[in-house]
Amino acid sequence: MTDAAGRLAALAEEALGAPLPLRIRAWDHSEAGPPGTPTLVVRRRRALRRMLWKPGELGLARAWVAGDLDIEGDLYQALEVLAGLLWERGSGPRESRLTAALRAVRDPAVRSAARGLIALAGPGLPPPPPREEARVPGRGPLHTLRRDKAAISHHYDVGNDFYERVLGPSMVYSCAYWDRPGSTLEEAQHAKLDLVCRKLALRPGQRLLDVGCGWGSMVLHAVREYGVTAVGITLSEEQAAYARKRIAEAGLTDRIEIRVQDYRKVADGPFDAISSIGMAEHVGAVRYAEYAAILHGLLAPGGRLLNHQIARRPEADEEAYRVDAFIDRYVFPDGELAPLGRTVSQLEQAGFEVRDVEAIREHYALTLRAWVAGLERHWTEAVRFTSPGRARVWRLYMAACALSFERNRIGVNQVLAVRTPADGTSGLPLRSRDWRE
């Protein structure tokens, strides 16, 4: 079979109604498409079978993770070029143009395109199995204690050595704060941790709860720099082991406790302050009111909560919202994003007084690009510590998310809330952005 790339380009143009805005190189070494653009490399015909059996993002993701599909050239430019295919809506509810087109190719009404794609893919062949990096969808109700622990383990228990190569020495897996031009990733993560501490007005003798403590960076910073004692909770066994080792090496085991514990099981409040940094995305809509109420109950009167959380844009029909299939299967199982307004409302309904909201989505784009660069620098080691498929998952999702933050498809916000006592004394300065007080 010759000129597979030309045939793919023609089929893409027929299905999409426009030329594919990337160059294509196929398994037979043929090439087609505009020169000077990133190249979509279809290494094996199996990639087409994956896309036929799972039209849309999931089929593309399976082909990418398996190495059947690749991009040569600037990954960000390629994803930007494909943005209209990946994100713009088609005729069906929540369908991308790509999904709608692939469904049309399978429709008998477009028999010539369908026959061509099936012939290239290999007629009569069974669908390729999903990669081992994909999580089998959970059964039963969302966000039970057991299911949440399994979901967290899928994402975080992939090897601390791997995360060291991606995140760098800070080991902070949330949006950094680039408060100065030219800051390094480590400086920006230090600035973020310090900003959280200042917003919480931490001072010696206070007790801090860090919900979703990761590898212990927040509690270490708060104890070292602000003199508090701290409890950090996580559902990841590997994170907890790593955090405890860091704390022991710092000589702070008498002031920091790390627990493998669900936030619903914390019963030793009150705390003077609570930080929840990049954890609430795992809570889910069905549990968010409970989450907010539990944190409110764990705070002492006058205590502060800093909730740092990714947000999505509101949907015209909120009932139509569905979690991205690639993210759900390969990255954050059962994770959910909510609009900022819903988060603020639910915190208020739990009894909090919301005092400040700081939107920092551009900071997350910078953070993600730094993580992608770290992964690419240490690619050989990252693959050795996990698998080629896992490393490919992280590279794709972080690069795509960087573009999503840059284009305002998603955002991230720090919400400062207070358990204001009955006398109305919030304890905040009159100038709420003067975090020195």
Label this structure with key terms.
11 strands, elongated, alpha/beta
3D architecture notes:
With 437 residues, the protein is an alpha/beta fold. The protein has 18 helices and eleven strands. The protein has helices at 4-16, 46-53, 57-66, 75-81, 83-87, 97-106, 111-121, 145-156, 160-167, 185-199, 217-226, 237-249, 288-298, 325-331, 340-349, 361-377, 379-385, 388-406; strands at residues 23-25, 31-32, 39-42, 69-72, 207-211, 229-234, 256-260, 271-277, 299-312, 353-359, 410-418. It has a seven-stranded mixed β-sheet with strand order 7-6-5-8-9-11-10. Strands 2-1-3-4 form a four-stranded mixed β-sheet. A hairpin with a 5-residue loop joins strand 1 and strand 2. Helix 2 packs antiparallel against helix 3 and helix 4 (75-81) packs across helix 18. The longest helix is centred in the C-terminal third of the chain and has 19 residues, at 388-406. It is elongated, with a radius of gyration of 24 Å. It starts with a helix and ends in a 19-residue tail after the last strand. The model is unreliable at 88-95 and 105-110 (pLDDT under 50).
